[in-house]
Amino acid sequence: MHNAPIQAVLFDLDDTLWAIEPVLHLAEKQLYSWLQQHAPAVAAQHTVISLRQRRQELAQREPAYQINLWALRHAVLTQVLTECQEDPALADPAMALFTTGRNAVTPFDDVEPGLQQMKKHLKLGTVSNGFADLGRIGLAEHFEISIAAHQFGTAKPDPAIFHAACKALAVTPQQTVYVGDDLRLDVLGAQQAGLRAVWMNRFERSLPDHVRPDAVCTNLGELSAWLSAQQP
């Protein structure tokens, strides 16, 4: 099935090209400080944790929000602003602030040189369930295509989003490698869509027996070496 030479590499973003948890926590703290100043009734009744719980509850009730995380955050802010008799229109500037914070990521040191090396020989793209802005982050130039779940309409692990990326790069799934940190969404999802899958394990996690990535890497240097070894 995978005798075809590799012609393209697709990347996950969060926790694959940069660490996201500290960025999200800081962005949520900044947003909460903003609410304390501009919507004090919300801050009086809610914490960062309770707002997170509200998002989880809404995403469970309405699965469409699992595809569009920006819309999920905006909807919850609109709800709590209305409940607390604050102006629901404040959700827009609040989300603008959060989005700026959410994109204040620092790519891992190996990312820029790794992408520079790989794009000499391979087509590169991204497929993400999040709403990172590669233009703001400064990595957009390395990728020929970028597909985000909230724009596409389905999310990983749906095979359709992987196949759309392959089609956009004019390659087959068999010619494509997907690289990501999430074993279910990225590794199993890509493999079930007919791609090869590399697990990017930057945080020394253990691999369960039921998942068998085509390779395991801890940085893009290791990925480049593995890709070179696959070429005939």
Largest sheet: 6 strands, parallel
Radius of gyration of CA atoms, rounded to a whole number:
19 Å
Low-confidence stretches: none
Distance between the termini: 15 Å
Relative helix content: 40-55%
Number of continuous helical runs:
11
Strand order of the largest sheet: 3-2-1-4-5-6
Compile the SSE list and pairings.
Blueprint: E1 8-11, H1 21-38, H2 40-45, H3 48-61, H4 69-83, H5 91-102, H6 111-118, E2 123-128, H7 134-137, E3 145-148, H8 149-152, H9 159-168, E4 176-180, H10 183-192, E5 196-200, E6 215-217, H11 220-230
Helix pairs in contact: 1-5, 3-4, 4-5, 6-11
Quick description:
With 232 residues, this protein is of the alpha/beta class. Helices cover 48% and strands 12% of the residues. It has a six-stranded parallel beta sheet with strand order 3-2-1-4-5-6, with helices on both faces.
Descriptive account of the structure:
The protein has helices at residues 21-38, 40-45, 48-61, 69-83, 91-102, 111-118, 134-137, 149-152, 159-168, 183-192, 220-230; strands spanning 8-11, 123-128, 145-148, 176-180, 196-200, 215-217. By secondary structure, it is an alpha/beta fold. The mean pLDDT is 96. Helix 1 (21-38) packs antiparallel against helix 5 (91-102), helix 3 (48-61) packs across helix 4 and helix 6 packs parallel to helix 11. Helix 10 links the parallel strand 4 (176-180) and strand 5. A 6-stranded parallel sheet has the order 3-2-1-4-5-6, with helices on both faces. The protein is built from 11 helices and 6 strands.
